[in-house]
Amino acid sequence: MGVEVLNFGCRLNIAEGEAIRAAADGAPLGNTGGLIIVNSCAVTGEAERQARQAIRKAARLRPDARIIVTGCGADVSRDRFAAMPEVSDVVPNGEKLAALSYDATSINLHRHPSESGNDNKRYAPLTSGATHARAFVSVQTGCDHRCTFCIIPYGRGDSRSARVDDVIAACAAAVERGQQEVVLTGVDLTSYDDDGQPLGTLVEAILTQVPALPRLRLSSLDSVEIDPLLDEIITSEPRLLPHLHLSLQAGDDMILKRMKRRHSRAQAVALVQRLKTKRPALSIGADIIAGFPTEDEAMFANSLALVEDCDLVFGHVFPYSPREGTPAARMPQVPPAVAKTRAATLRDAIASRKAGWLKSLVGTTQQMLVELDGLTGHIANFAAITLDHAAMPKSILPVIITHTDGARLYGAPA
Q1: Neighbour-count burial of 170, counting CB atoms closer than 10 A to its CB (0-12 exposed, 13-18 middle, 19+ buried)
Q2: 3-state DSSP call for residue 317?
Q3: Which residues contact 262 (CB under 8 A, 6 or more apart)?
Q4: What is the pLDDT of residues 314-327, one digit of tens each?
Q5: Alpha-carbon dihedral 98, 101, 103, 106, rounded to 10 degrees
Q6: Is the pLDDT of residue 394 over 60?
């Protein structure tokens, strides 16, 4: 049955999933019904619950397959995954790209995360393959910050970055196989540092040295870490697509301090307003946590106001869930039902603003990257679109926006 990889969580996991598959393809699988690798996420308790649910489902559908768990959940909650009867092995994050980790003759459920090699300061870029219209290129992993709610540094280790030349080679290879959009990904992308060369230098180098790449997109950015060159490129380079996703997390200064974030509310709002003044077509998304410990109604109101103040049309909104081992888990908790209600309120506000924004695009002509199904894709500002008839997969074509249902656009080739 071969190797199946189930990716959960961030775009970084998508990029790494291809390398995991390649590593496992080179390992002896033994006389089994194939191998299922669950590349887990640990950013929230819900993410881990979804991975466990997928493991149980996979075991029902393919009872003869070996199931191996890796990813951040394998380091953060390895005992919980190892205790599942469906799981054959748990592979630490730092070992998930080694063929030996999937060798059916070398199984060890008691490996410890400290063996994962997270002390290595250099990171090899990984790229999602031809099964994606866009290429997700991982250029950084790990994090040097310790936000009080976040467990990820314990699963990924300290920040490591890929060399500029290696990233350029990965982007050029993506173009060679027909992918016309590259998405740079990382755990803390704006902490990218190749011997003093920040993310702005990397982006400039890609745009200069891979001239055949039409579209470059960035995944989540920490607003306070945007370096001056990147700031300039965001507002002046058309090949860097007009869409930013910011790791804001909250809109109240006291909550931001208790999260141990490094920006203030005013700084986040000022950044968005300044960038959008220079490049009005920029669409803005954000990560926001609702119901963080000690958050009262006034504090939540400040986060809700970010939707208007930062013109948010995309959002990853999470009700806070405590992660064992983090400082926030020991703080006075907001009742889970309250956190869920506040998260729903935030999502509704973003959806409403998004609907108005999509309506303003009706009648315009936009450039669309067509997904592999030939019918769906995204325009430059990341609005999702469906065509009225099929077009060539992976192509970039001009489309006329005919209407919207409030959640996505619909259009026809121009």
Answers
A1: buried
A2: strand
A3: 145, 222, 224
A4: 999 999 999 888 99
A5: 130
A6: yes
Which among 94, 99, 84 has a CA at the least distance from the CA of 48?
84
How many secondary structure helices (H) and strands (E) does the chain include?
12, 20
Output the pLDDT for position 116.
40
Which of 39-43, 52-56, 110-114 is the most confident on average? 52-56
Residue 315 pairs with which residues in a beta bridge? 286
* Other residues' Cβ atoms within 10 Å of the Cβ of residue 49: 11
- Per CATH, the number for 3-116 is 3.40.50
b/e burial code for range 345-375 (CB count within 10 A of at least 16 → b): bbbebbeebbeebbeebeeeebbbbbbeeee
> Can you give the pLDDT at residue 30?
58
For residue 253, give both structure tokens: 């200064």
Helix 265-278 and helix 228-236: axis angle, to 10°? 40
- Which amino acid does the sequence have at 136? F
Token digits for 408?
Answer: 């996505």
pLDDT above 90 (res 304): yes
Q: Which of 16, 8, 11 is nearest to 97 (CA)?
A: 16
pLDDT given for residue 102 in this prediction: 84
Per CATH, the homologous superfamily of domain 126-358 is tm_1862 like domain (3.80.30.20)
Residues of the chain with CATH 3.40.50: 3-116
pTM of the model: 0.86
Classified by CATH at the fold level, domain 365-413 comes out as OB fold (Dihydrolipoamide Acetyltransferase, E2P) (2.40.50)
| Residues whose CB falls within 8 Å of the CB of residue 20, separated by 6 or more in sequence, listed in order | 5, 37, 39, 70, 96, 97
The residue that leads in pLDDT, 108 or 217, is: 217
- What is the chain's Cα-based Rg? 21
